[in-house]
Write a structure and sequence with these properties.
Layout: H1 2-22, E1 27-34, E2 41-46, E3 51-56, E4 61-67, E5 74-78, E6 81-85, E7 92-96, E8 101-104, H2 110-137, H3 143-171, H4 176-185, H5 191-199, H6 209-223, E9 234-236, E10 242-244, E11 254-260, H7 265-281, E12 286-292, H8 298-307, E13 313-315, H9 321-326, E14 333-337, E15 343-345, H10 351-360
Parallel strand pairs: 1-7, 11-12, 12-13
Antiparallel strand pairs: 1-4, 2-3, 2-5, 5-6, 7-8, 9-10, 11-14, 14-15
Helix pairs in contact: 2-3, 3-4, 7-10
Amino acid sequence: MYKVKAKLFSMSAAVVLLAACNRTSDVTSITGTVAAGDIDEVNVIVKESQIDTLVPVTDGKFSIAVPANVLAVGTIEAANYGVQFIPDGTRLTVELSEESRVTSSMKNSVQSRFTELQEKSISIQNEFREKATAIMSDTSLAEEAKTEKLDSNYRYYFGLFNDFNKKVVAENSDNILGVFGIMNLIGAVEEAELDSLISILVPELSENEQIKAIKTSLMAKKETAEGQMFKDFTISGPDGSEVSLSDYVGKGKYILVDFWASWCGPCKAEIPNIKAVYEKYRGKDFDVLSVAVWDRSPEASRDTAAAYGVNWNQIVNAGSIPTEIYGIEGIPHIILFGPDGTILKRNLREEAIEEEVAKYVK
């Protein structure tokens, strides 16, 4: 009887010890190694916890303890090396090298799931590229068949990546990984679905800067959706003059507005399409306006516009003012406004520009 009791006690102690090893703490202990021998300190940053400190490296090793916070993401940097980590209350082992990595002492910890997220994302992208390269290299395929296969390959991996990130959000609504999943889905799902996914995050993540920016952008898109009335903005020039969107939009003409920048390749690729529409339809019922956003300088906007033959109305030096108002996350972003200022169509590209204009202007 004594031996049985002793065995049971021993097993119970082992279970308790194992549970203690897997329990998260209010402190995240980090120990690390640095591959390069000439590095004598690393920079540890956890913005959400107001940590930005230099940690000494001795014999290629360093250590630090930071507060646990699964709503935060930290970085460790030295020379050309860097790695992100989640201060999740487990013991973290960091290797700073050409292939930097972070390992958690606990399976299925937030850090372990973060590593899985990174590896899975890279794996999906690599598989997509490999399949695309194989299709492009297949000399037995006609060009039309290649295009079909490439399109099918894109749709498959695009869907796979989206489904994976939706799962990440659903399983990590109480930690920073939910934010990463949301970020990966921007532009990949409809605004309503993105808003729905954000709604399952814990309230504390509503204060996350990225989530706040996304929610602001979603609200801007909702308020400037097709069918809504245009929102005005005013840009001040270096000479003190002012120009507003309402100087052109809502004045009785259909106005095609191109939000672009001189450094943006796709923007410049759309200019010939816009020019063709302008030359075909301009008149008492239709006009075009280019609005330079996020550009290096007014001169860069003007010089590039001149080089590409832009001979219609322009607003330069608009910065981020229009993009914040209209929730624009990428350029070019081309909008058709009705005579009264109603937003008729957003995000027009290529042949769709003329197709939309032709619906209204003869």
